[in-house]
Structures are given as structure tokens and as C-alpha cells.
Design goal:
152 residues; Alpha-Beta Plaits; 2 domains; four-stranded antiparallel sheet
């Protein structure tokens, strides 16, 4: 197996390296490399899942960001207006003095949701973006698309 491995180098903050070492020790990895391979596999799987979404999807995008970092707050708000047809609700939470979290409830095509999440990830100050969607294949059934039957 060693013949098909490639060596890469990366630069990360010392605090992140310390966190990685905690993961290696806590989850009994043999090495940092083993932990990084698992993390990269998860990242690639998430990427493939998110970029292959088709049709109507519903779910949420959770964004953690440092609101003191440049104009990230204003840019996120501008994106929310740009994607007003896809974002159906927003919840804002202050996690710390510097960090905020927004949960965007979304209802749109997989391509729209993927585009929005990619644009959020690209912003300076954004620390983390997580997408969770459910397939909306039953869209045409009563009660499944923001409809409420008050007769029941």
C-alpha cells in the first residue's frame, strides 16, 4: 500500500494542530496521517453528496462565522437577499463575543442550495458551513410543500 501513497505538506495554525493531536490521541489513531486521511475521506464524501443533489431539496445550511472579520455580516445578509427564493427562514445565534451562527432553512433545487453553500464557504470570516438536506420527492402530495390543512 505504501507505493500508492503520496506525501503532502500543509500549513495550519498551531491551535488546529493541537486539536488534531487531541483527536489522534482520543480516538486512538496510529498517526496524524491516519486521522487526516479519515477527515479527507469525509470531506470528499460530503462534497460529492452536496454537488450531486438534483431536484427540489429541503433542509438547512448552518454557518458559523466571526462577525468582526471584515464585512462578512453584510455579505451574508446580501446573499440571503439574493437567495430569497431559496431561503425560507433564518435563525441567528450569538455563540461568543466574536462568533455567530446562522441556520438558514432552505427549499430549492439542489443546485441552488449547493451554490449558496459554496458562496458562504468562500467568505472570509466564515469558519464552518454544514449542509443537511432531505429529498423532496413527494412535493406534489398535500401537506408536503409549506401547505397546512386546517380541516384536520
Amino acid at each position: 500500500m505504501a507505493d500508492d501513497l503520496s506525501r503532502v505538506s500543509m500549513t495550519i495554525p498551531s491551535s488546529l494542530l493541537s486539536d488534531l493531536d487531541d483527536v489522534v490521541a482520543g480516538w486512538d489513531y496510529d498517526s496524524r496521517s491516519e486521522a487526516m486521511r479519515d477527515a479527507l475521506r469525509e470531506l470528499v464524501t460530503e462534497y460529492r453528496t452536496e454537488t450531486s443533489m438534483t431536484g427540489t431539496q429541503r433542509g438547512s445550511i448552518v454557518v458559523q462565522y466571526d462577525h468582526h472579520d471584515g464585512d462578512v455580516t453584510e455579505t451574508i445578509t446580501a446573499l440571503q437577499h439574493e437567495f430569497a427564493d431559496t431561503i425560507i427562514a433564518v435563525q441567528h445565534v450569538h455563540l461568543t463575543h466574536d462568533l455567530c451562527m446562522e441556520t438558514l432553512a432552505v427549499d430549492g433545487t439542489g443546485e441552488e442550495i449547493s451554490d449558496l453553500s459554496n458562496r458562504l464557504r468562500a467568505l472570509s470570516g466564515v469558519k464552518q458551513v454544514q449542509v443537511a438536506v432531505v429529498d423532496a420527492a413527494e412535493e406534489e402530495l398535500p401537506g408536503t410543500h409549506r401547505e397546512h390543512d386546517d380541516a384536520e
